Amino acid sequence: MASKNTFQLSALSQNDPGAADGSKLYCEVTSISNGTLRAGSFPINEEVKLPIPPGEAKDAPATPTWFLETEEGKDASLEITIFCPTDDNYPKTTIVIKESDVIKWDTEPFEERVNQIYQKGEYGIIGFAQKGREGYIYTITAGILNPRLHGNLAAI
Predict the structure, then answer these.
(1) Does residue 136 surpass a pLDDT of 90?
(2) Which parts of 1-156 are beta strand (E)?
């Protein structure tokens, strides 16, 4: 029997000054494949507001997170769309995150590990892979002004 893993996707807004208003950004996970959504996940096919970092002495809001129970050897994926329903200029961006890509990005040597840039300029969106206790974690951050790569690799 194949071993079970958890593949986690989280999304938030950095709300950089000078960027699109990150406090008005939303996401929606529109599909999952080769995995089962675990209890405790945010809903799919529903708009979810992206949280921004709180001010001092304030509790952070819950970060939208989806947990997929996956089987080794099957390439699980999630499709997420980042958008701003109140700003027609904000480009709606759909991103497909494959578990195999997250594993590959995380297993690069630390000094070469890089974030992925999905959108540049004032509407910046990045992603970053890491290994957690139960499996691999991918975090998407929107609301970034002119995102830059960490490491020496090119953007996807």
Answers:
(1) yes
(2) 4-13, 26-33, 36-37, 48-49, 65-71, 77-83, 93-98, 116-119, 124-131, 135-144
CA-CA-CA-CA dihedral for 123, 128, 133, 135, to nearest 10 = 100
Beta-carbon contacts of 15 under 8 Å, excluding residues fewer than 6 positions away, are 21, 22, 23, 52, 53, 143
Domains in the chain, please, with CATH? Answer: 4-144 (2.60.270)
Q: State pLDDT tens for residues 59-71.
A: 878 999 999 999 8
Which run of H or E residues covers position 103? helix 99-106
Mean pLDDT across 135-140:
94
Amino acid at 37: L
**Token code pair at residue 73:** 């050897």
- Residue 27 pairs with which residues in a beta bridge? 48, 82
Radius of gyration of the chain (CA): 15
